[in-house]
């Protein structure tokens, strides 16, 4: 779709794209195809699309999936999508805030088995990932257009890890499919984007989830400090020398250096650490 076509649709439906709402419409055909391919849509799939806008991506989803469910917060874009997509019998558009969608509503819309595809507003990325990665009815897969910097943080390797990457990689296997320049959107955003594919882990994590994230949050509390010092400050239950010696022993047992920092640990390292630390 061209910029002129998008502008004409905005005029027709009285839509004024809002930067604060992350309303940047994807134009590039190549990027649209890459999002669809990353979604790995099969003929029996139900696909949840966040922010269908003018239905450019929705049409491609509907051509492959059993059903496409678009969740649109903006009232005018909801009306536009309903009108544009009315000829598609396997498309349902609802006017709702995706972050307020309950598990019961989600199950009613999708049957509990679904995939997610979205050109996600940057402002809700963190809240969105926290919600859908921790649901009882998690998606089978997500293909999301995200801010490039955030995508790179999510997919980071040990040495550059953050609490965000640890959290995302605890529940899924994220991978950057491709990077999308800002010029592929209208209006043009300030930053480039990237398509990230999240393959949701099917098996239950063997770690104590509450304990895992408690220790990880403490570990990342002061990024420049060594992990053992952050852990001491978070668990002041014994003398520093005794505690540090105990932590150093644990770090050695799991194959880490005494001067390791939180960003050096993989998800598996955090799991082993959580198993050995007594809270």
From TrEMBL:
<feature type="binding site">
    <location>
        <position position="51"/>
    </location>
    <ligand>
        <name>S-adenosyl-L-methionine</name>
    </ligand>
</feature>
<keyword id="KW-0963">Cytoplasm</keyword>
<dbReference type="InterPro" id="IPR001737">
    <property type="entry name" value="KsgA/Erm"/>
</dbReference>
<feature type="binding site">
    <location>
        <position position="72"/>
    </location>
    <ligand>
        <name>S-adenosyl-L-methionine</name>
    </ligand>
</feature>
<dbReference type="InterPro" id="IPR029063">
    <property type="entry name" value="SAM-dependent_MTases_sf"/>
</dbReference>
<dbReference type="Pfam" id="PF00398">
    <property type="entry name" value="RrnaAD"/>
</dbReference>
<feature type="binding site">
    <location>
        <position position="24"/>
    </location>
    <ligand>
        <name>S-adenosyl-L-methionine</name>
    </ligand>
</feature>
<keyword id="KW-0489">Methyltransferase</keyword>
<dbReference type="GO" id="GO:0052908">
    <property type="term" value="F:16S rRNA (adenine(1518)-N(6)/adenine(1519)-N(6))-dimethyltransferase activity"/>
</dbReference>
<dbReference type="InterPro" id="IPR011530">
    <property type="entry name" value="rRNA_adenine_dimethylase"/>
</dbReference>
<keyword id="KW-0808">Transferase</keyword>
<feature type="binding site">
    <location>
        <position position="119"/>
    </location>
    <ligand>
        <name>S-adenosyl-L-methionine</name>
    </ligand>
</feature>
<dbReference type="InterPro" id="IPR020598">
    <property type="entry name" value="rRNA_Ade_methylase_Trfase_N"/>
</dbReference>
<keyword id="KW-0949">S-adenosyl-L-methionine</keyword>
<feature type="binding site">
    <location>
        <position position="97"/>
    </location>
    <ligand>
        <name>S-adenosyl-L-methionine</name>
    </ligand>
</feature>
<comment type="function">
    <text>Specifically dimethylates two adjacent adenosines (A1518 and A1519) in the loop of a conserved hairpin near the 3'-end of 16S rRNA in the 30S particle. May play a critical role in biogenesis of 30S subunits.</text>
</comment>
<dbReference type="GO" id="GO:0003723">
    <property type="term" value="F:RNA binding"/>
</dbReference>
<feature type="domain" description="Ribosomal RNA adenine methylase transferase N-terminal">
    <location>
        <begin position="31"/>
        <end position="202"/>
    </location>
</feature>
<comment type="similarity">
    <text>Belongs to the class I-like SAM-binding methyltransferase superfamily. rRNA adenine N(6)-methyltransferase family. RsmA subfamily.</text>
</comment>
<dbReference type="InterPro" id="IPR023165">
    <property type="entry name" value="rRNA_Ade_diMease-like_C"/>
</dbReference>
<keyword id="KW-0698">rRNA processing</keyword>
<protein>
    <recommendedName>
        <fullName>Ribosomal RNA small subunit methyltransferase A</fullName>
        <ecNumber>2.1.1.182</ecNumber>
    </recommendedName>
</protein>
<keyword id="KW-0694">RNA-binding</keyword>
<dbReference type="GO" id="GO:0005829">
    <property type="term" value="C:cytosol"/>
</dbReference>
<feature type="binding site">
    <location>
        <position position="26"/>
    </location>
    <ligand>
        <name>S-adenosyl-L-methionine</name>
    </ligand>
</feature>
């Amino acid at each position: 779709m061209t910029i002129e076509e998008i502008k004409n649709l905005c005029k027709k439906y009285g839509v004024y794209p809002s930067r604060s709402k992350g309303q940047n419409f994807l134009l590039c055909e190549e990027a649209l195809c890459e999002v669809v391919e990353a979604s790995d849509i099969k003929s029996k799939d139900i696909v949840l699309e966040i922010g269908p806008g003018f239905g450019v991506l929705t049409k491609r989803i509907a051509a492959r999936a059993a059903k496409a469910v678009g969740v649109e917060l903006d009232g005018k874009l909801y009306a536009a999508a309903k009108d544009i997509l009315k000829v598609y019998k396997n498309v349902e558009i609802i006017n709702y805030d995706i972050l307020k969608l309950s598990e019961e509503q989600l199950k009613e819309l999708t049957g509990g088995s679904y995939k997610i595809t979205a050109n996600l507003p940057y402002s809700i990325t963190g809240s969105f990932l926290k919600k859908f990665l921790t649901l009882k009815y998690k998606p089978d897969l997500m293909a999301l257009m995200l801010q490039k910097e955030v995508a790179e943080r999510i997919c980071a390797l040990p040495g550059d890890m953050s609490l965000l990457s640890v959290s995302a990689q605890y529940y899924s296997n994220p991978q950057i499919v491709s990077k999308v320049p800002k010029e592929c959107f209208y209006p043009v955003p300030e930053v480039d984007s990237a398509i990230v594919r999240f393959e949701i882990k099917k098996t239950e994590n063997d770690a104590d989830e509450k304990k895992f994230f408690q220790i990880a949050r403490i570990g990342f509390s002061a990024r420049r400090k060594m992990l053992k010092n952050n852990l001491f400050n978070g668990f002041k239950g014994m003398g520093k020398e005794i505690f540090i010696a105990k932590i150093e022993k644990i770090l050695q047992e799991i194959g880490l250096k005494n001067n390791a920092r939180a960003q050096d640990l993989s998800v598996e390292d955090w799991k082993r650490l959580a198993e050995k630390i007594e809270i």
